[in-house]
Amino acid sequence: MSECVAQPQVDPAEDQRKINARMAQVKHKICVLSGKGGVGKSTVAVNLATSLAEAGKKVGLLDVDIHGPSIPTMLGLGTAPLISNADSVDPIYAGNLKVMSVGFLCQNEDEAFIWRGPMKMGVIKQFLGDVEWGELDYLIIDCPPGTGDEPLSLCQLIEEPTGAVIVTTPQQVAAVDVRKSLTFCGKLSMPVLGIVENMSGFACPKCGEVVNIFQSGGGEKMANDFGVPFLGKLPIDPAIGKACDAGLPFIQSHAATETAHQLRDIIKPLLELK
Questions:
Q1: Using CA atoms, how far apart are residues 144 and 97, in angstroms rounded to an integer?
Q2: CA-CA distance, 120 to 103, in Å (whole number)?
Q3: pLDDT tens digits for 42-60?
Q4: What domains are defined for the chain?
């Protein structure tokens, strides 16, 4: 596989100045985190951002899941070409949502991002400092799973993120890893805006009844244990997977469903941020 190359910036002070200037135009910077892959973090991030935009807010969605950038597929953007200006890069639009993803850096969706830490740091700096985000009410940042280089770099570069939304699934094997994200936020003094329990039961596509094929309540218990808000539960809904594959945000394509109503309930505390 060929390697996609992004050149890291060479002047840290200038990089930080540019980032500070860009981020000063963004009212709320929210990181979507999870200590474990496969919990639906990117799906939650896409639908949170879309819900906020539907509520009339100016919203950006930044995908820095470098080794698994799924946001372009979920929004039907594919490998959209980036437009570079003299000192900035234009985001890609999905409706009225401004989007940037590492997935836009390669022409071929099968390309591998074979980057060490400095290269990752360089592209994160570019996404924060060079992208023409403009004035935003919310910048939703889809972080890779875990507590490594990328989420750490983001939180340090943004300096004062509004907080984090933590995504988990209800079973213990996921909760054990996701709890580490809460510890991560504590060590960085980053507020936890709340926990979302994804895949909490199975929503029957015929009758709508939710059946707990996994145990339920792991995310709520975690929130109680750490003294942080619990934002709500989302069931396994076959329509969500179909919407993601089709490049259609579920909250729009299935707006009248119970799951979509639950997603709107989840964003209510985020809409109340001052």
A1: 21
A2: 13
A3: 999 999 999 999 999 999 9
A4: 12-262 (3.40.50.300)
Q: Report the C-alpha gap between 250 and 259 in whole angstroms.
A: 9
Tokens linked to 73:
């597929």
**Which residue pairs from 240-248 have beta carbons closer than 8 angstroms and sit at least 24 positions apart in sequence?**
240/43, 244/43, 244/46, 244/70, 244/73, 244/74, 245/73, 246/76, 247/73, 247/74, 247/75, 247/76, 247/77, 248/76
One DSSP character per residue, 207-229 reads T--EE-SS---HHHHHHHHHT--
190: helix, strand or coil: coil
**Count of residues for the chain?**
274
> pTM of the full predicted structure?
0.90
Q: How many CB atoms lie within 10 A of CB 204?
A: 13
